[in-house]
Write a structure and sequence with these properties.
- By secondary structure, this protein is α/β, with parallel strands linked by helices.
- 36% of the residues lie in helices and 15% in strands.
- It has an eight-stranded parallel β-barrel, surrounded by five helices. It has a two-stranded antiparallel sheet with strand order 2-3.
- Helix 2 links the parallel strand 4 and strand 5.
- The longest helix has 36 residues.
Length: 331
């Protein structure tokens, strides 16, 4: 199928958050800055740097960057802005002892759900509020560094994705209320905001009930965009990184369903969606990841993107940072 980016003329295009692994001592290094500089342009509304750990939080692997006062964060934001894109940052945390699965599909998907419930019940409301305070602190730090879009990572089985879901956390409504207050504060600062959620976890039984309630609750919060992802990392990573036709088709249908139920909210669609942009609802915008990882000039060369080589899944392959076979082909 030919990809005609002219059909995106009324859509905003985002480079979605990815943990590149290009860090030294937990902070961005020259490779990190260059990765985002190369992929930013006037054709890209916003480049969101991925999976940045909030102060006092926990990374998802040893290559995850942690936000702080180092001026290198401002350097990253300027590199993106100078190329014509809005600099964005995705704020996240896992928890102490978190270990991401190497395999794409868990042998026991129910175990991850029960472990999540046990973890959340052990925290208590005081600790949950401490986590939420860390996200507010991180947002303020990010704004000081020059980031103009703040994304809250509440997807993929990381801590916030557990805390926002009433099926896992009895205090989910409190968490959602706090996040709504954060979104309103960001708006008052003139900063664009988004929240990323997983529409499904990958556990069929769990996903069969309550998913729509979660989606609708989050879509009703005053964020500028809701970034619709899917999958929990320790249940089914195939939903996070969809490649098989039946998975991409289901994710597209799920995304359309949420967007149509909330016509006044704006959404970011991703998961191999580029070639279906003409089918997007009016309130849906384009999120890219693997195509721009593979080819920094993808928006100028829309037929020359990802080839599904799988090298970008560096953690699952035992690597330390993202890579792509295409980089050698394009040079």
């Amino acid at each position: 199928m030919t990809l005609d980016t002219a059909i995106w003329s009324n859509k905003l295009v985002f480079l979605l958050g990815v943990n590149t692994g290009f860090v030294t001592n937990g902070e961005p290094d020259a490779r990190y800055i260059e990765f985002y500089r190369q992929r930013s342009s006037t054709n890209l509304h916003c480049a969101i740097i991925g999976n940045v750990v909030v102060p006092g939080g926990h990374g998802s692997n040893r290559s995850t960057p942690s936000l702080g006062s180092n001026s290198v964060w401002g350097t990253v934001a300027r590199a993106i802005r100078e190329r014509g894109s809005l600099p964005g940052i995705q704020l996240a945390t896992a928890w102490e002892g978190y270990q991401g699965a190497r395999k794409f599909l868990s042998a026991d998907t129910g175990e991850a759900i029960e472990q999540a419930r046990t973890l959340v019940s052990s925290l208590g409301l005081y600790e949950i509020d401490r986590v939420l305070d860390a996200f507010s602190t991180a947002a303020a730090i990010a704004i000081e560094h020059g980031f103009g879009h703040i994304q809250i990572h509440a997807a993929h089985g990381y801590l916030l994705s557990l805390l926002i879901d009433e099926r896992i956390n009895a205090d989910a409504s409190h968490v959602q209320c706090r996040l709504g207050s954060l979104a309103r504060w960001l708006h008052s600062q003139g900063v664009e905001s988004s929240i990323r959620i997983s529409m499904r976890t990958g556990n069929v039984e769990f996903d069969a009930s309550g998913g729509t309630v979660l989606q609708d609750s989050i879509a009703s919060l005053p964020f500028d965009f809701v970034d619709l992802s899917s999958g929990f990392y320790n249940i089914d990573k195939r939903l996070i990184y969809p490649a098989r036709p039946e998975i991409t088709t289901a994710r597209f249908a799920d995304s359309v369903g949420v967007a149509l139920r909330h016509p006044s909210q704006r959404f970011i669609f991703s998961g191999r969606m580029a070639r279906r942009a003409s089918e997007l609802p009016r309130n849906a915008h384009v999120g890219l990841c693997r195509d721009l990882i593979a080819n920094p000039r993808f928006l100028e060369e829309p037929e020359n993107g990802c080839r599904n080589y799988g090298k970008c899944h560096y953690y699952s392959r035992g690597g330390e940072h993202v890579t792509c076979t295409r980089w050698g082909e394009l040079n």
